[in-house]
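Reading a protein record of the kind used here takes little practice once its layout is understood. Each number in the token line that follows is a code from a learned vocabulary of backbone shapes. One such record is shown here in full, so that the layout can be seen directly:
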Amino acid sequence: MKLKVTTGILITLLLASMLGAMTPNVSANNAKWTFMVYMDADNNLDCPENFDLLMDVGSTDEVNIVVLWDGYGETSILYYDSKGNPVTASGSHFYYVVEGNISEDARFPTGGKELNMGDPYILKTFVDFTFAYYPADHYCLVLWDHGYAMEGCCWDWTNGSDNLTPQELVEALEGRYIDVIAWDACLQAYMEVVYEYAAGGLAASYLVGSEIYVSWYGFPYDWILQALVDDPDMTPKEFAVTIAEKYAECYRPRAHWNYNPRATLSVIDLSEVEDAADQLSKLADSLIEKVDDGENYVLKSNSYYGLLSQARAKGNIADVTYSEYFIDLPSFAKSLCKAKDPDIREAAKNLVDALNKAIVYVGNTQPMGSVTLGLGIYFPKSYEKGVELWQEWWETYYMGTRFAQETLWVDLLFAYWNVYVE
């Protein structure tokens, strides 16, 4: 955290003064869409392929494509020119992407200097600058880098592996409405994560993220942006779905290719997330009532343990690292819809209905279509695996979420683990 504070002190003063001096071209006509990529390549994802894909399409009068790029090391490869020669840069730069080329916007403050992409103020500066100089009717923000569920995304190796937490993302985007926010990063379609954004007041309509890993190759930006350029009148919902559709379409014929044999990408309606969380709490409450005698949980001695174990197994995301910790929430809920207990069955059906509203679309390759239905959730097999082995992570990241603090999910986990906490 010391690095973040130091970076904030040094860069905030500089950026604040420069941002205050910005004079947007207010006479310019708005584009229909501005597509922003926050490309944190300051780590082992420092690879040039995505710039090539962006340049295959390029900006038009109706679609702006802009990138804030930060590389790793003294110099990094941005892309390869038509002769196969590497085009390199160092530090951080704001680029406007056109077909076949990129141009640096020298108006962006601190262009060329090293920036900490894990600092929320840098993201805020990027978004504010883009809104000022590249106005549009609709905005899409892509967060490009590593991701890990409740920990967030965008690790900056040059700056002590600082990263953006979900809470910092809400802070960075305060006061800005962005139609679509997409993560070209792993493990972002989790109930705990999207609830943080919904309950935290993130001003966005749709979130796009994956329950599992995103391929090293990332989004097929050429396919996604060609669709947008061909139809810039797409609504935010239509474009969010297009991102997921093109992602799945790209990887379906590429099984066992590019570091990831499977692919899934979800579109979440942020306005429906809190109701889904509320229905989940009601289901948890119904289950806890069956097993809490006021002194100890007796779940393992009755049929409800078997019921929950079976539902947890139905949600298992096979062959994915950390699958013993995370499950697919809709699969879990659908399994409980078959419970003999009418209270459990009704609560589970209400949760399924709420999830169907929150999960707008899921793009899947096979066999992910049968195991990833849009949102994951943390559900380890035991207290030892879920808490004791990850004590610092549990206390810092998981229990630090609004979801853990405001819903009954953690209470249900402790009931399942047969750990009684007053």
